[in-house]
Design goal:
homodimer, mainly alpha, Arc Repressor Mutant, subunit A, Tetracycline Repressor, domain 2, 11 helices, about 0% strand, DNA-binding transcription factor activity (chains A, B), ArpA-like (chains A, B), DNA-binding (chains A, B)
C-alpha cells in the first residue's frame, strides 16, 4: 500500500476509534468519522467498505490482538506469576488510557448492535494465563490445589469483569488501584502455603 | 390499594420484566408490555406513568433491594465468611434464574439509554460485605492484611463483574461453576495463614 493510502487508513481508524470510544457505535455516523478525520466519506467506504468494516478494524487493531504484550509474556527472566500480574497492569492501563483499545472494548460490549462478527482476546488471554500458571506450577510457585486451565479462565473473567465494572461504577481513574486491591485478594490463593506474601509484584 | 389494582400492577411489572430481560429496554414498547400482560396500554400509564416508570419499578422490585437476603445476612449461627459466600451464591442464582432480577440487572447495564435515574444495590452489598469481613476479623477468621472496607469494595466489583462477564462470554449456565472456581481463588487470601482451606463453604 502506498504511504499516502496508509496514512489515510490510519487517520480514519483513529478518528473512528475516538468517536466509538466516546459516543458508542450507534451514535457515530460515517459523516462524523469523515468530519473527525478531515477525510471524505468516500474515503471511509473506499478503505473500509462500511461502518461495520471500520468497527472490525478498530477491534482488530488493539483490543483483540495485543501485539505489544508478546515481549513481556515471553520474558523468562521474570517469574511466571509476576509476568501474569505485569500483563494485567499493561492491559488495564491500555483499557483506561489508549483510545483505540477503549474503542475496541466498547465495541465488543455493544456487539449485539453491530452487524459483523467482532473478534475478542479472551481465548488468547486464557491460553497465555494457562501457560504462565503451568510454568509456575513446574517451578513450585503455585499452590497445588490450583489447576492452571481452570484458574486461568476464572482469572480472565474476574479480571476483565473487575476492570469493566469498576470503570462503570467508579470511573476509569479508579481501575488501577482496584486492580492492585484485587491482586492482594488473589495472589495469596495462588501461592504455596508459607509463600503467600512472598515478593509482592503489586506496584505501589 | 385494592386487590384487583395490586394484581394488575404485578402482572404489568412481570410482563415488563420478562420483555426487558429478553429484548432490552429500547426494543420493548408499552404496546408489547400491554400485549404480554393481557392488560391495556392505559393500565400501564395509569399505574406506572411511563415506560421509564415501569423500568424503575422493575429495578426496585428485586435487583436494587434484595429483601430476600436479609435473613441469611443476619444469621449469626453461620461464620461471617461463610455467610458472605452463601450470599454471593444467592445473588448469582437470582441473576441466572429470576426474570425480575435479570431484568433489573439488564436495565441497569442499559441505564445510559433510560431517561430516569435507576437505583442499584452495590453500595448496600459493599456495606454488608464490610460488616461481615469486620466480624470475621474480630473472630480471628480474617488474614490480618485484609482491610474490610477496601476488600469489600473489591470483592463486590470482582464478583459482579465475574457474573456479568461470564454470562456474556460463556452463557448463564456456567455462572455458578465459575463462581465456585472464583471463591477457590479468593478464600485462601481472606483466611489467616494455616487456615486457607479450612471448612470450604463452596458447594459441590
Amino acid at each position: 500500500m502506498q504511504e499516502r493510502a496508509k496514512a489515510t487508513r490510519r487517520s480514519l481508524l483513529e478518528a473512528a476509534a475516538r468517536l466509538f470510544a466516546e459516543r458508542g457505535y450507534a451514535a457515530t455516523s460515517v459523516n462524523d468519522i469523515s468530519a473527525g478525520s478531515g477525510r471524505t466519506s468516500g474515503a471511509v467506504y473506499f478503505h473500509y467498505a462500511s461502518k461495520e468494516g471500520l468497527a472490525v478494524a478498530v477491534v482488530e487493531d488493539r483490543f483483540a490482538t495485543w501485539p505489544q504484550l508478546a515481549q513481556r509474556y515471553a520474558d523468562e527472566t521474570v517469574p511466571p506469576i509476576e509476568r501474569l500480574v505485569a500483563l494485567s497492569y499493561d492491559i488495564a492501563r491500555a483499557l483506561v488510557e489508549d483510545p483505540v483499545t477503549r474503542a475496541g472494548a466498547r465495541l465488543w460490549t455493544e456487539r449485539a448492535t453491530i452487524n459483523a462478527p467482532l473478534p475478542h482476546p479472551f481465548a488468547l488471554w486464557t491460553a497465555a494465563a494457562t501457560r504462565l500458571l503451568a510454568q509456575a506450577r513446574l517451578a513450585g510457585q503455585l499452590r497445588t490445589q490450583v489447576r492452571p486451565a481452570c484458574a486461568a479462565r476464572t482469572l480472565v473473567c474476574a479480571f476483565y469483569g473487575l476492570c469493566s465494572f469498576t470503570e462503570a461504577l467508579d470511573g476509569a481513574a479508579t481501575v488501577i488501584d482496584r486492580l492492585s486491591d484485587w491482586w492482594q485478594l488473589t495472589l495469596p490463593s495462588l501461592r504455596p502455603p508459607g509463600h503467600e506474601d512472598a515478593g509482592s509484584p503489586v506496584p505501589g
